[in-house]
Design a protein that fits this description.
Layout: E1 2-9, E2 12-19, E3 22-27, H1 33-50, E4 53-54, E5 57-58, E6 61-64, E7 68-70, H2 82-85, E8 94-100, E9 105-111, E10 120-128, E11 140-143, E12 154-155, H3 171-176, H4 198-209, E13 214-220, E14 225-231, E15 240-241, H5 247-261, E16 267-271, H6 279-294, E17 298-302, H7 306-317, E18 326-332, E19 341-345, H8 363-376
Parallel strand pairs: 3-17, 3-18, 11-16, 16-17
Antiparallel strand pairs: 1-2, 1-8, 4-5, 6-10, 7-10, 8-9, 9-10, 12-14, 13-14, 14-15, 18-19
Length: 377
């Protein structure tokens, strides 16, 4: 377990948010979930800007630096200028972002100077402990809420390490990599299967999430493109291109592929995994992410779906992931209104939530009550 510390960054004056092996960020719109993710991404962007890659890690240590880190590049960040970043209640131009454990700390302190025009933050200091934490590992996986929809093909791209891109724009290439190049860890193989090939395992998990759907990935070294073709009950053995079927498959494929190939002890951040999915598929993707987290990947999920939560609960109750590896952070309005409130919810071994605060996925009950009252006249 670690803590994400955010000081004077956007809506947060000073807050610590627990980060577990599987961390869920939930709550109404506008209460800081995206800000929490942006703070992790900006810290990662800073590390990449300030440290050199040595083998599989960005070199650690203490640094006094004047590096200017762009607010509008890297990990699809689009934060505007420094005036947009400073907390409205603060009299200070200093910002802090850090990840802390009992033994390690990785933190950066920034200064915003010209608040009207600066498109960057200046790094005052940055510290990363000698122990190698996931945030400094070469492999770092992020999937934006706005992923690429169905495309006839995707351009081939060189990457430092195999990944699906920030919007799933490389998923066809990723899945089509030559056989054996990206074997799936045995702990993440679909039950009762032994073939570790990525395309095979993607299809097994895809069929679990969306029964009856299969894909194939092909690449062309002549056109420098890769293509996903899809089969389901109605294609009758003749695959069709992704553009001839809905958005759900294109949105979920990068999650499945990334979850299967992500290196252990690395971050995998995914926004809105439920997008364009049927409720049953939303539940199953929650279960899948629980499996991935239990097998060594540090998963952070932002979601508005109670079905995704249900899938995680089922994963806990099924012993797919241990309950103490899961933390749900519920973001809501605080009474003081100085910054959003973050309530951490744990799970019991049977999958039950330890508590159910007001406003936490209770809209179904509220709607039912309103309908009953309306029907009664």
């Amino acid at each position: 377990m670690s803590d994400l510390r955010i000081i004077n960054f956007k809506c947060f004056e000073d807050i610590s948010i627990p980060v577990n092996q599987l961390t869920v960020l939930a709550g109404a719109n506008g209460y800081g979930k995206s800000t929490a993710i942006q703070s992790i991404l900006f810290l990662r962007h800073t590390i990449e800007s300030d440290f050199k890659l040595h083998e599989n890690f960005y070199m650690t240590g203490n640094a006094e630096t004047n590096t200017e880190v762009s607010l509008n590049s890297g990990y699809l960040l689009s934060l505007g200028n420094s005036a947009h970043i400073i907390n409205r209640n603060s009299n200070s131009n200093d910002i802090g972002i850090g990840i802390f454990t009992l033994y390690n700390e990785i933190k950066a302190e920034y200064e915003a100077n010209n608040l009207e025009s600066d498109l960057y933050l200046k790094v005052k200091s940055i510290k990363a402990d000698e122990r190698r934490e996931p945030i400094v590992k070469k492999e770092f996986y992020y999937l934006n809420a706005e992923r690429i929809g169905p495309r006839f093909s995707q351009n081939l791209q060189y990457f430092d390490f195999p990944n699906a891109g920030f919007q799933g724009e490389y998923v066809a290439q990723l899945i089509s990599e030559r056989s054996g190049y990206l074997p799936v860890d045995k702990e993440r193989l679909f039950k009762d299967t032994a073939n570790p090939g990525l395309e095979f395992q993607v299809n097994e998990w895809l069929n679990f999430i969306m029964p009856g759907v299969r894909i194939s990935a092909k690449r062309s070294n002549e056109t420098f493109t890769a293509q996903i073709q899809i089969e389901n009950t109605y294609t009758k053995g003749e695959p069709i291109t992704a553009t001839n079927i809905g958005f759900g498959i294109s949105y979920v494929l990068p999650i499945i592929a990334t979850g299967l190939i992500a290196k252990k002890d690395s971050y995998f951040i995914v926004e809105n995994p439920e997008a364009h999915l049927h409720p049953a598929a939303q539940t199953n993707i929650g279960f899948f992410l629980g499996m991935v987290a239990n097998n060594g990947v540090k998963v952070v999920v932002e979601t508005h779906s109670d079905h995704v939560i249900n899938g995680i609960q089922i994963a806990v109750a099924s012993k797919v992931i241990k309950s103490d590896k899961v933390t749900i952070n519920f973001f809501s309005e605080s009474r003081s209104k100085s910054q959003p409130n973050v309530k951490s919810i744990n799970l019991k071994e049977n999958g039950e939530l330890t508590e159910w605060p007001k406003g936490f996925f209770d809209q179904t009950q509220i709607d039912y009550a309103q309908l009953i009252n309306l029907r009664r006249g």
